[in-house]
Amino acid sequence: MTGPEIDFSNLKLPEPGQLEAYFALTEAVSLLQHHVEQQLRAEGGISAIQFQLLMALNGPVPLTMTQLADGVVYSRSGLTYQAALLEKAGLVTRGPSPDDERATLVAITDKGRETVGKVLPGHIELTRRLLYEAVSADDLDRLRDIMSRVRDHIRNEPPRSAAPRRRRTPPAGA
Amino acid sequence: MTGPEIDFSNLKLPEPGQLEAYFALTEAVSLLQHHVEQQLRAEGGISAIQFQLLMALNGPVPLTMTQLADGVVYSRSGLTYQAALLEKAGLVTRGPSPDDERATLVAITDKGRETVGKVLPGHIELTRRLLYEAVSADDLDRLRDIMSRVRDHIRNEPPRSAAPRRRRTPPAGA
DNA sequence: TATTGTTATACTCTATAACTATA
DNA sequence: TATAGTTATAGAGTATAACAATA
User: Fold this and answer.
1) What residues of chain B lie within 8 A of the CB of A26, using their CB?
2) I want to staple A58 with a disulfide (CB 3.0 to 4.6 A). Which of A51, A68, B3, B23 is the partner?
3) Global pTM?
4) Is A9 an 8 Å CB contact of chain B?
5) Domains annotated on chain A, with CATH
6) Are B35 and A168 in contact (CB under 8 A)?
7) Which of A128, A146, A155 to probe the B interface (max B CBs under 10 A)?
C-alpha cells in the first residue's frame, strides 16, 4: 500500500515479511490491550496501568515510588498522578520511608487486594480467550522467548544520544 | 510476585510460561511504541496514529472516513479529531464524495506525502534496530505467523454480548 | 430506519519545568 | 551536587451523546 510517489531507492527496505510481523505485532497487542482496558474498567473500575501498579504492590512489602516506577514507561509525575488516584480510591496508602526520608513508601490496602482479587480472574480468563486460545503451547513458548529477547534488547538501547540514565527518564532532547 | 493473601484456588491459573509470554509481549511492544512515538514526533511532528493514517492514505485513491477507520481502534469522533488535525497541518484534505453525499473523502496532500517520505526512513531504521536486530529471520517468520493468528482471532471476537457490529464501534454496555 | 460524519463536552492521561527536602 | 518526590500547568487523546444530512 505504499504509494509510488516517493523515492525510497536509497533506503534499504525491510522484507515484506518483516513489515507484516511488525504490523501484526502492534495491531494484535493494541487490540488485546483495548479489551483488557475494558475488562479492568468494567469489573474493578481501574485502568490497565493501575492494575499493573496494584499487581506490583500485591507482594508482602511496600515499595518506594522509584521501585514502583520500574518497568513503567512514565514520567515521575505520571506515577505521582496515578499513585494519588489509587490513594484517593483507597487502594493504596503513601507514607514516608524510615530508611530514607526522601522516599515515599507505597503500600497496598485490603481494599486494594480485594480489587485485585475481583479483577484478576476475569483478566486471566480474557487473556486466555484472546491470546492463549489462539496459539499452541509450542508457539507460546517461542513467543515468550522471542519477545523476552526483544524486550531486553530495547531496554538496553541507549536513549539515542546521551549515556543511558538509571531508569526511564524523559529523553528531553529528542 | 503474587501475594499469598488472596485465594485463587478456584481459578485455573495459566502456566508461568504463559504469563511470561503475555508480559514480555505487552512490555516489549509498549517500549517499541514509545520509541516510535518519539521518532515520528521528532522527525515529522506527527503521532504514531497520524502516521498510520497517512500511510493508509498514501496510496493513489482517497478514502472515506469509514474506510480510514478500518483497523484503527477509535471511536468515530476520535477519527474526526485526528483528521481535523491533519487537515489543519495541511497533510490531508477533506471533501464530499460524489458517490455518497454522506461520506467524506480524505486525500493526502503533497505535503502529506513529503512528511511520510521524511519520516519513513527513520521509522524503518528504528524498527530494524529495535525489533529485527533482536530476532533471527526464522524467529521473525514465526512471530509473523503467531501474531497474525492472534490478531485475526481477536478481531473475530464478539464484543462480549451483542452481535458483532460492522466495525469497531464503542461497546456501550461494558 | 440505518448509515456517515461532526460537534460539544467532559474526562483521562502525559510531559515539562519549577520546586522542596533529604543524602 | 545528586536523588526522591510533588505540584502546577498545559496539551494531547478518548469517549459519550446529541445532532444533521443522506441512503
Assistant:
1) 29, 32-33
2) B3
3) 0.87
4) no
5) 21-154 (1.10.10.10)
6) no
7) A146
